[in-house]
Amino acid sequence: MSRWNPLDQLKYQVISPLQEAWQAAKITNRYPQLAPVVKAYQALYPYAGASTSVSVNEREARGIEDDTLTYGETRWATFMELLPQLAVSPDDRFIDLGCGTGFLCFMMHAIYGIPATGVDLIQGFIENAEQVRQQLNWSQPRFQQGDFFELSFLPFSLIYATCTCFPDDVMAQLADKLAETEPGTRILTVTDLPEGDHLRLIRRIPAKFSWGPDHVYLSERI
Ligand SMILES: C[S@@+](CC[C@H](N)C(=O)[O-])C[C@H]1O[C@@H](n2cnc3c(N)ncnc32)[C@H](O)[C@@H]1O
User: Fold this and answer.
1) CB of residue 68 inside a 6 A radius of ligand 1
2) 48-221 — its CATH code?
3) Domain limits of the chain?
4) What confidence tens digit (pLDDT) does each residue in 30-44 have?
């Protein structure tokens, strides 16, 4: 039987829980309206790695071997720091393509009051996020299980996608799909940049993720 080395133990049992508590406090201090959401998520995902297990277990049970579904998370505090760069307006409609736990959708809705949609292929994430929405008795965000490539992107003006595990062909498919959006749509992608004549890079923003330092690309549909 393999045993954890003391450094792993320190990371998972001490450092990660402290980081989680710190970011939860940072979020709720800045946006007290998110406190019930944070509390619900802490109950659903009580330890570091609990959300990853939802994805890993479901993929294993369904026999899905697809690296583009590899799970990792945008830290809530990282996302909060990105928000001022987005110039969100009350008319915006947000979608997280591959929303995982769906927390970012709750953030967008609770902070800006805008409609937010989360889509993920992992049914367990969608069921959990729906459960939180119902517990809170909120009408938003909306969550949907499925392949985001099968959705129309047209209704959305603010798009987020963590592209860290997307190979070139998936990035090309995403870039093509973004042609469906209205000019002026802002697109945030993590790690990689969808390219095409219909897209303009506004800025590249360094940011910290659960997997380490990375970049977020803010682009605009032209
Ligand atoms: C790296 S995680 C990011 C989760 C969340 N957006 C965040 O930043 O915290 C990527 C998620 O996208 C989902 N995913 C990848 N490709 C997808 C597709 N074509 N349709 C729906 N979900 C997809 C995966 O199941 C996974 O949960």
Assistant:
1) yes
2) 3.40.50.150
3) 48-221
4) 999 999 999 999 999
Q: Per-residue pLDDT for 141 more than 90? A: yes
pLDDT digits (tens, 9 = 90+) for 95-112: 999 999 999 999 999 999
The answer to whether residue 217 scores a pLDDT higher than 80 is yes
**For residue 131, what pLDDT is reported?**
98
Nearest residue (CA) to ligand 1, atom 17: 98
User: How wide is the angle at C-alpha 83 spanned by C-alphas 23 and 99, nearest 5°?
Assistant: 70
The best mutation among 55, 121, 178, 215 to test binding of ligand 1, ranked by most ligand atoms within 8 Å of the C-beta, falls on 121
Q: Are 110 and 37 in contact (CB under 8 A)?
A: yes
Q: Which amino acid is at 1?
A: M
Give DSSP secondary structure letters for the chain: -----HHHHHIIIIIHHHHHHHHHHHHHHH-GGGHHHHHHHHHHS-STTHHHHHHHHHHHHHT---GGG------HHHHHHHGGGG---TT--EEEES-TT-HHHHHHHHHH---EEEEES-HHHHHHHHHHHHHHT----EEEES-GGGS--TT-SEEEEE-TT--HHHHHHHHHHGGGSPTT-EEEEESS----TTEEEEEEEEEEETTEEEEEEEEEE-
Q: Whose CA is nearest to atom 13 of ligand 1?
A: 98
56 Cα–ligand 1 center, Å: 12
